[in-house]
Amino acid sequence: MSANACSGRFYPYPVFVDHVRIFAKAGDGGGGASSFRRESFVPLGGPDGGDGGDGGHVVLRADSHTDSLVSLFYDPHVRARDGGRGQNKKKFGKSMPAKVVAVPIGTIVHRLPPGQTITRRSALDPEAAEGERARTPLPPEEFGAGELETLVDLTENGQEYVLCKAGRGGRGNVHFKSSRNQAPTRADPGTPGEEGYFYLELRKIADAGLVGYPNAGKSTLLGKLSAAHPKVAAYPFTTLHPLVGVMEFPGTYERFTIADIPGLIEGAHRNVGLGHEFLRHIMRCKLLIFVVDMAGSEGRNPLEDLASLRKELSLYHSNLGERPWLVVANKMDLSDADEHLTAFRARYPKIEVIPVSASENQGVDILMKVLHRLLSVQDAVPSGTT
């Protein structure tokens, strides 16, 4: 939490942003010059107005060193520079370089409809209610079907997309002289650069995703499966944004990525709790790993947990219900876990259930072997729909 010095109140300053609305404006072309050659011994020279320079494009570039859209959250107005004006003596105006904005790999760019206003009150707004969580632009699911035009999905490092094309420089009057018009005064203005409102949505790219209720042990499990070091604490919603770790399998020279997603609660498909902050990142995972508290240490029933998790994913997107999945029965070191596991396997006899205790590092090696087998098969299959 950071303090707002002006109001003396505290507001949450987001350090991870995965969707944001921006306004982008490419540079306008510089106007052509209308001038005539005037020198000591050439009092009535011909036209010599130079052309205007081109403006700068607005370009988005996928960058592996950028993992959030937070920079655009604080500076949502992206403008490229205008081209320079033409001058006398046929001097061309300066053309401007492109305004390149680095975005994370996995960023999807949507064009907003004309006149669409979706900005919610910011967490930095002094009028925001005390304790109200940071509000960012509405996710695309809340616009209504068919209202957003998807422009590009930046899925490769270094991939670029010209979001707004620059305006071209205007012609100077030197281009309009002829035998019939030897002293033209006409000079073209530069053309305007493109502009518009856009919605940028980040969907983390990972081979497998850990899905589960808060405090199910997803972050602890991620730390055991990979070299990632997520925050682990004994309270819900310790993880507030997706974390991606890399799993390495000795002797195979294969590596797969696994994502720890913020905890899901009932009604997440309606944006309850972290809602779409969680679900958007599941869309790219080839394999879903449902982490269930098999001991019921949080007062929940493991069977009901899995049914609720599967329902939320299917309601969010039908394709998620068809994605390959398995169950990790976590917290097997606690009492009642064995009894619940027996009932769980009786209810789901055809589902692969891997019993582990992430905190005690029990069963993790077996889970790694299962994941390697499943992900090796899925590696040849394209990622889920975006």
Given this structure, which CATH class of the largest domain is correct?
A: Mainly Beta
Low-confidence stretches: 1-12, 117-146, 230-239, 267-276, 380-386
CATH topology of the largest domain, what is it called? Spo0b-associated Gtp-binding Protein, Chain: A
Beta-strand share of residues: 15-25%
User: What is the strand tally?
Assistant: 16
Mean pLDDT: 78
Q: Structural class, please?
A: alpha/beta
Using only C-alpha atoms, the radius of gyration works out to: 28 Å
Give the strand line-up of the largest sheet.
12-13-11-14-15-16
For the largest beta-sheet, the strand count, sense and barrel status come to: 6 strands, mixed
CATH superfamily of the largest domain: GTP1/OBG domain
Q: How large is the count of helical segments?
A: 6
How many domain modules? 2
CATH architecture of the largest domain: Distorted Sandwich
Shape: rod-shaped
Distance separating the two termini: 33 Å
Q: What is the percent of helical residues?
A: 10-25%
